Amino acid sequence: MTSPQPTPSHTVGPFYGYALPFPGGGEVASADRTDAVVLHGHVYDGAGAPVPDALVEMWQADPDGDLTGAPGSMRRDPVDGGFLGRNGVDFTGFARVATDAAGQWSIRTLPPGARPGHAPYISVCVFARGLLHHLFTRVYFPQDAEAHAADPLLASLDPDRRETLVATADRVTGSYRFDIRLQGEKETVFLDFQ
Amino acid sequence: MPLSQQDIDREVAELRDAYEKSRAAGAPAVRHPARNYAPYRSSALRHPRQPLVPVHGDPETVELHTPVFGTTDVTDIDHDLTRQHHGEPLGERITVSGRLLDSTGRPVRGQLIELWQANSAGRYAHLRDQHPAPLDPNFTGVGRTLTGDDGSYNFTTIKPGAYPWRNHENAWRPAHIHFSLFGSAFTQRLITQMYFPNDPLFDYDPILQSVTDESARQALVATYDHSLSQPEWSLGYRWDIVLDGPSATWFEEGRR
Ligand SMILES: [Fe+3]
């Protein structure tokens, strides 16, 4: 038997905004978690202009490194069919946020735990009008510099490209910034899983 | 001077010829569109110029696992886009059914499928869609479902209309439904579009033509299936979806 051939990708287009994003899509950590971190950034195109119609999805391990995930990222209300938000108990590990008119996105999540042999990271999938096939990248965190030296992906990259995958910490707010540059100077490293 | 359809047609033909020549010379088939597909003008500044960095052979990779969705993430009527308002939407009622498979042919069970589309007049319920076609108060155009144990899915909706866009002068998109899919690994994530058979706009559309491989392009077109049509009710289309990319179970089973 020949294996089936993959269905081709297509762009998300400009009009997904009423279909894919959902309220609380970036609130991965429940409100009472004091160890939650805010991660934010902009998406830029090859001219350095912000991309106002990108969709950013993130997937990660919980703080213990567990990747089981949990359902309920987009919990629905059986009464009126609207969105209920996460249940405040389970950690789903999944975020989905659209960029705003300034090309900015943000999420609030728990710090990911490390997997054996890897520095901790959050996996990112970027969609946008104009992008015919999504792009994968990763967010690593600046405080893990020691683990980065041994991480199989980071260790394989030139230092100037490696730094596109490491968020910068804001000492005042405690948040992390991670910009995604689709093209050109300081172009983000994008990944191909084989 | 605005780009004409002829300009776009010429570019599409050149890129298709180049692909067919490379195939004839022994290059492997390419199923996915190139991210830098010039006839789709918005791709010019939004594709990376650096080659993607390959990641392979490590079962601890986060992306070999995936977010999960469950019965709390969908309501019972989310798969029926004709029942989301008080009245019936206008247009031709259709059902779209098929299976979600991974590239080894195994069903993807219990995963989320989302879809969105224009109404029967070719208008999205989106503020930025200013195509002067009527909105339908009884149609939003968003659906969700979870796949069954055999990977099957089923939506009831309205056949969307074609609509104009501004890629070039007199650019029209063939009728299509946008699909968003999750597999058993984040590497299998897919967003794509389903088309309807025999649409005369196929040849003019740089988004469909961005899939330069003829058989891959055909895989985006649903099949009209009379056995799925329901008497006095709806017309049936069948469309199977196959996800690309490795998953953790491949490594566990020693496939690679
Ligand atoms: Fe569309």
Automatic annotation (TrEMBL), chain A:
Does the keyword field hold GTP-binding?
no
**Which keywords appear in this protein's UniProt record, sorted alphabetically?**
Dioxygenase, Oxidoreductase
Q: Name one Pfam family in it.
A: Dioxygenase_C
Family annotation (CDD domains): 3_4-PCD_alpha
Query: In what residue span(s) does the Intradiol ring-cleavage dioxygenases domain sit?
Result: 35-184
What InterPro entries does its record include?
Intradiol_dOase_C (IPR000627), Intradiol_dOase_core (IPR015889), Intradiol_RC_Dioxygenase (IPR050770), Protocat_dOase_a (IPR012786)
Q: Which family does it belong to?
A: Belongs to the intradiol ring-cleavage dioxygenase family.
Q: Which PANTHER family match?
A: DIOXYGENASE, PUTATIVE (AFU_ORTHOLOGUE AFUA_2G02910)-RELATED, PROTOCATECHUATE 3,4-DIOXYGENASE ALPHA CHAIN
* Protein known as: Protocatechuate 3,4-dioxygenase subunit alpha
Species annotation? Streptomyces daqingensis
TrEMBL record, chain B:
Secretion signal: which residues? none
Which UniProt keywords are present, listed alphabetically? Dioxygenase, Oxidoreductase
Indicate the segments annotated as coiled coil, or none if absent.
Answer: none
Source organism superkingdom: Bacteria
Q: Domain named Intradiol ring-cleavage dioxygenases: which ranges?
A: 96-124
Pfam families given in the database record: Dioxygenase_C (PF00775), PCDO_beta_N (PF12391)
Show the InterPro entries listed in the entry: Intradiol_dOase_C, Intradiol_dOase_core, Intradiol_RC_Dioxygenase, PCDO_beta_N, Protocat_dOase_b
| UniProt entry tagged with the keyword Oxidoreductase | yes
Query: According to its UniProt record, which protein family does this protein belong to?
Result: Belongs to the intradiol ring-cleavage dioxygenase family.
PANTHER family membership: DIOXYGENASE, PUTATIVE (AFU_ORTHOLOGUE AFUA_2G02910)-RELATED, INTRADIOL RING-CLEAVAGE DIOXYGENASES DOMAIN-CONTAINING PROTEIN
Q: What is this protein called?
A: Protocatechuate 3,4-dioxygenase subunit beta
Q: Which organism is it from?
A: Streptomyces daqingensis
